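Customer ticket, subject: "Can you confirm the structure for Beta-ketoacyl-[acyl-carrier-protein] synthase III?"

Message body: Hello, I'm evaluating your service for our small team and ran a test protein. I'd like someone to confirm that this is what the system normally returns, since I don't have a reference to compare against.
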Amino acid sequence: MATLRHSYIAGVGHYVPSRVVKNAELETMMNTSDAWIQERTGIQERRWFEEGTDTTANMGANAARKALEMAGVDANDVQMIVFATLSPDYFFPGSGVLLQRELGITNNCPALDVRNQCSGFVYALSVADQFVRTGMYDTVLVVGSEIHSSGLDKSPEGRGVSVIFGDGAGAVVVRPSTTEGQGILSTHLHSQGEFAEELIVKEPGSNRDNRVQYILDNQADLYPYMNGQNVFKHAVVRFPQVIKEALDQNGYQPQDVNMLIPHQANLRITQYVQQKMGLTDDKVFSNIQRYGNTTAASVPIALSEAVQEGKIKRGDLVCLAAFGSGFTWASALIKW
Ligand code: ACO
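Agent reply: Thanks for trying us out. I re-ran your input and got the following:
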């Protein structure tokens, strides 16, 4: 069989809504405290979308424009869109087609929505990588975008979940690598449906006799439920596992990693993974303090900021890793 080509990330960008919500503001709504939130999660503030300005699709488009500009690619040269979100604009159709329209892409390229929550962006990147590696497409736009704030229970009952999540978007452009040894070396995807209900928004579920009536009568299940301690327990095992899988496959050791970009789930989870891998602070990127957990948007926002801040240089070994609802987990190892 002929050797498959590699893909690489030719451009990256992000967008976050302008409204900053500090922990002190949440104290006024949900019987919580800045000290509790910072101690358990590391989060100091997050962004909440502006109704009438931000949508999941247009935030993704804002991030995508920056990624396309960095890649030097015209929007109409995009050959495929892969859009990761757990908070789509509509029940259907997916947000990928809305982003296509928002960007003025008129070439009828395919738009695929990926629903893998916190692992969504790494899953979406893997899809793009496969299409580019096989030669099917030369330019794939991968987007992660989320609006959590409109779906959170902002009363005291929701405090265990609602202090964690924030809104934002990130995007990358994936193209064939022209430099030997440069690009996405491998991706690794996993799931374990046994734990599907441990982190879930249950309604509106389709398996009801009359789902519209059901949600009118059972509104509580429209809010996210999370078994936080069980999520934590699994996350600290799966993150190191899937990172090791990527390093082993490519013959690298943890100390070879120049930058680990973990899904920004919780600062305590990231610190645990960092310690387990024996990485110094300068090799692990964290911005959860400023954005909270933005699920499918968190990895591309972090990657975009790391690149912007000059923390990733050409030739660096960069590892992306994620874990979340499903449970799902994933990694991507990249020679930048
Ligand atoms: N403010 C103040 N008190 C709170 C809050 C809050 N926001 N939320 C819960 N509490 C209280 C609880 O009511 C409880 O009180 P009690 O002892 O009187 O009953 C106490 O704090 C401890 O609650 P726990 O749920 O046991 O708190 P825990 O130490 O487990 O921390 C947390 C909760 C932060 C959610 C933790 O379990 C965690 O980090 N889990 C990982 C989940 C995660 O990161 N999810 C992100 C999404 S999934 C992903 O991205 C991988």
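A couple of notes from the result: Residues 32, 36, 40-41, 118, 159-160, 163-164, 199, 226, 228-229, 231-232, 235, 263, 265-266, 268-269, 293, 323-324 surround acetyl coenzyme *A (CB under 6 Å). Residues 61 and 114 are 16 Å apart (CA to CA). Feel free to reply with more questions.
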